[in-house]
UniProtKB/TrEMBL annotation:
The keyword Transcription applies. The lineage of its organism: Bacteria, Bacillati, Bacillota, Bacilli, Bacillales. One of its GO terms (biological process) is regulation of DNA-templated transcription. Residues 3-50 form the PAS domain. Gene3D superfamilies: 1.10.8.60, Homeodomain-like (1.10.10.60), P-loop containing nucleotide triphosphate hydrolases (3.40.50.300), PAS domain (3.30.450.20). It comes from the Bacteria. PROSITE patterns: PAC (PS50113), PAS (PS50112), SIGMA54_INTERACT_1 (PS00675), SIGMA54_INTERACT_2 (PS00676), SIGMA54_INTERACT_3 (PS00688), SIGMA54_INTERACT_4 (PS50045). Residues 146-375 form the Sigma-54 factor interaction domain. This is HTH-type transcriptional regulatory protein TyrR.
Length: 461
């Protein structure tokens, strides 16, 4: 098959490499772009069969041979002489539908691939910079004493950082003492409002009658006892800053309506005042209550609930992130040392023992206990035997040494717990579904095994 002069000229104008074979795979045309791309002369290829070139290792795959085999277009990606190539082979048929030529279009995608790899590297670098940035921002606050070592708390901080970047209301959920206020401050410090006021109102602590004036302030003479010159409320004080509404579930329905109105209209009036005051505050609410149930029972307004619940963050209880405890203890010690002349040394075994407790009062309870221990310790040294008896187990003989003893210790705690609740061994045994004899035998056995001073424990029981 001979290619006409016009076609030949045309093929030389194309910037992609072109290599054409006949229906048997014999090369009939190689354009200049192909020669340049693969640094090869057309005369060395024209007249050669693709099957021979493949056999000699010139190429691994031949699109021409594949097209001849299938009679369909074929696209291959090949590495050829150190270059990444994309090759598309197209069949050409005569009027009798017989294959006469295969036209292969070859494009060098080496640079494109390099670009793709560079892009991927840049993306990876960007990602690691972002992670480092988040980490550094968290560390900065960590230096303020905020501990977030556990995975769950790191997720809380990541979410808090995300929401800090916008102005939406945040709802912090979590048991008492888990650190809702700490996270509220963290959000404020990392928001554009940092540097402006952070005002906290405990909605559960202020008598209902005073709540409205606490929120919106009053003008002089607004009511009996209103001070001269009036007083600004928290919405004025927190202007441009953040208003932290702690225990928002304790707010009266009446005040809920007023709060919702301010949030929607962004303006209010002092009690007894005529002037409308514009307000620009970011609301962070917190509660340990089940607000959804309160909404169902009409104790909390649904519209306010949706308004505040735009971005909820749940802070897990300490018992679900005990790995934070040793770091919290260190954080406490650092804070304590800032205020007291005596350095605090907390024995590592104390940290271990503290990790065994469930801390229903969460971090507040942990810190209160540490404070008590720090005060009662002689020289700032806190040792295991300073801990309350139910926490303290002398090292060695009485601490579980293996899995079986761990299980026994667990069983022993259950036996004791049942006795505390049910008062008599008969009822305790009944509650655990065992006979009184078994109960007493196990209790005595474990008591001898795990208690430093069984007599003392007896008194407690
Ligand atoms: N992640 C933390 N790192 C260090 N200290 C913390 C952390 N979380 C809480 N604390 C400390 O624990 C104590 C209780 O925290 P906070 O007052 O924020 O809890 P809360 O959930 O707001 O409690 P409540 O619901 O009773 O108001 C504070 O002394 C606080 O500094």
């Amino acid at each position: 098959m001979v290619i006409s002069k016009e076609w030949d000229n045309l093929l030389e104008l194309i910037s992609d490499g072109i290599i054409i074979t006949d229906h048997q795979g014999v090369i009939v045309k190689v354009n200049k772009a192909y020669e340049r791309m693969l640094s090869i002369k057309a005369v060395d290829l024209v007249g050669r069969n693709m099957s021979d070139l493949k056999r000699e290792g010139f190429l691994e795959e031949s699109s021409s041979l594949k097209v001849i085999e299938t009679k369909h277009p074929v696209t291959l990606i090949q590495e050829h002489f150190g270059k990444d190539l994309i090759v598309t082979g197209m069949p050409m048929f005569n009027e009798q539908n017989e294959l006469i030529l295969v036209i292969n279009c070859v494009r060098d995608i080496t640079e494109l691939n390099q670009l793709k790899r560079s892009m991927q590297q840049i993306e990876q670098i960007n990602h690691s910079y972002f992670e480092q940035l988040t980490y550094l921002r968290q560390r900065e606050i960590h230096l303020d004493g905020l501990v977030a070592h556990s995975q769950s708390m790191r997720e809380v901080l990541t979410n808090a950082l995300k929401v800090a970047a916008v102005d939406s209301p945040v709802m912090l959920r979590g048991e008492s003492g888990v650190g809702k206020e700490v996270i509220a401050k963290f959000i404020h410090q990392n928001s554009r409002r940092n540097g402006e006021a952070f005002i906290k109102v405990n909605c559960g602590a202020i008598p209902e009658k005073l709540m409205e004036s606490e929120f919106f302030g009053y003008e002089s003479g607004a009511f009996t006892g209103a001070g001269k010159g009036g007083k600004p409320g928290v919405f004025e004080l927190a202007n441009k800053g953040t208003l932290f509404l702690d225990e928002v579930g304790d707010m009266s329905l009446d005040l809920q309506v007023k709060l919702l109105r301010v949030l929607e209209e962004k303006e209010f009036r002092r009690i007894g005042g005529v002037k409308t005051i514009q307000t620009d505050v970011r609301i962070i609410a917190a509660t340990h209550q089940h607000l959804e149930e309160m909404v169902a029972q009409k104790q909390f307004r649904q519209d306010l609930y949706y308004r505040l619940q735009v971005y909820p963050i749940s802070i897990p209880p300490l018992r679900e992130r005990k790995e934070d405890i040793p770091y919290l203890v260190d954080s406490f010690a650092r804070k304590y040392e800032e205020k007291h002349p005596v350095p605090l040394h907390i024995d590592p075994m104390v940290k271990q023992l503290l990790c065994r407790c469930d801390w229903p009062g969460n971090i507040r309870e942990l810190f209160n206990m540490l404070e008590r221990l720090a005060i009662t310790s002689n020289n700032g040294e806190i040792l295991p035997d300073h801990l309350p008896l139910e926490m303290y187990r002398p090292v060695g003989s009485t601490l579980p040494r293996n899995f079986l003893e761990e299980v026994e210790m667990f069983e022993y705690q259950g036996l004791k717990q049942a006795l505390v609740i049910h008062k008599t061994t008969r009822k305790a045994a009944q509650s655990l579904g065992m006979s009184q004899t078994t109960y007493v035998r196990k209790l005595n056995l474990y008591r001898d095994k795990f208690e430093a001073d069984p007599k003392m424990e007896q008194e407690i029981l």
